What we know:
By secondary structure, this protein is of the alpha/beta class. The protein has 3 domains: about 1-80 and about 280-305, NAD(P)-binding Rossmann-like Domain (Rossmann fold); about 85-270, NAD(P)-binding Rossmann-like Domain (Rossmann fold); about 310-388, ACT domain (Alpha-Beta Plaits), CATH 3.30.70. Helix content is about 30%, strand content about 20%. The chain contains 13 helices and 16 strands. The strands form 3 sheets. A 7-stranded parallel β-sheet has the order 8-7-6-9-10-11-12. Helix 2 packs across helix 5. The chain is elongated and about 90 Å long. The two termini are about 15 Å apart.
Amino acid sequence: MKNILTLNSISPVINDVFDSTYNVASDVEKPIGIMLRSFKMQGYNLAPETIAIARAGAGVNNIPVDEYAKGGVVVFNTPGANANAVKELVITALLLGSRKIVDAIEWAKTLKGQGDEVGKLVEKGKSKFVGPEIDGKTIGIIGLGAIGAKVADAALSLGMKVYGYDPFLSVNAALKLSRHVVVVKDIDEIYKNCDYITIHIPYIAAQNKDFINAGNIRKMKDNVVIINCARGELVNNTDIIKATESGKVARYIVDFPSDELLDVENVICLPHLGASTPEAEDNCAVMAARELIDYIENGNIVNSVNYPSCSMPRSATARLVILHKNVNNILAQITGKVGAEGINIANMTNQSKGDYAVTLLDTDAEIPQETVDHIAALNDIIKVRVIK
């Protein structure tokens, strides 16, 4: 029985993904895998049996991914599984940022008790809440991954002009974009041309904290609307408050409330609703479960945030799954140890990303434990598993 520990409430649809060889619960011991959502793993006492962690969501700020990479623990996320849910919230934010809908609703409540006068008061007071249509306006999308691409399609269908910026745009992602999206290489093109700006990049503290700040806000059009459903830390709160107070930024809609932003005029704080739909939670849970199963049973890695993607169909008697440093001559050392036993290598693949690499090696005969131990003892080998 393979134990899977859940550190948060995970959608019960995973019960249809894991078969009877798995025991999935919140109280299992010695788990081979862990599933979680927002549980903070910094300082968590990880069991030595754990080889993989899957977050049912995209962000992994709550997981010490670098620390786990050093220990040979593969961390997965579920990019794109909640993309539609976030896209729909962004479109909601787009409309909230254009017309003063929230303020209007709160004002309408104050008319309670006015009886037959309500209709007249509405007609007299509604002019305070007018706002522009989005048809024909220009939106800039920073980050053109799964969510950004969906937002682009939705904005186009609403009659908007769409600019996109993503310095790491993959070929596959580019092919999915509509030809009507103006992809720019200089982010300043977003700032100077767009009436609305929405952010869809992962937060990496050392690289993009305060990505939106006073300096680039000055480059934006007057009365710009900024939407942040990515991470709160991507926007400097002090600078955005000053910009809304001055009128440079007409409205800031953020899905990550903080004490300083709450109750600030022209700032709308949503309570982290981005992926909070039953469909998104189901999609994320299923993807995370499948990632764990494929790695546990086949050694295949898809959507890891700390190891390279590496997959190969099973084609022989046994498989070696080797996590190692990305250094010269390591493959020759590994294959040399296998060849010294007279064992034929039927198939092999290797992928690297940054400091780390993965080698999958299928053999025509079972691999003696002594050979596995010899490989594990090589310099720069992090973890070796045998799958039969």
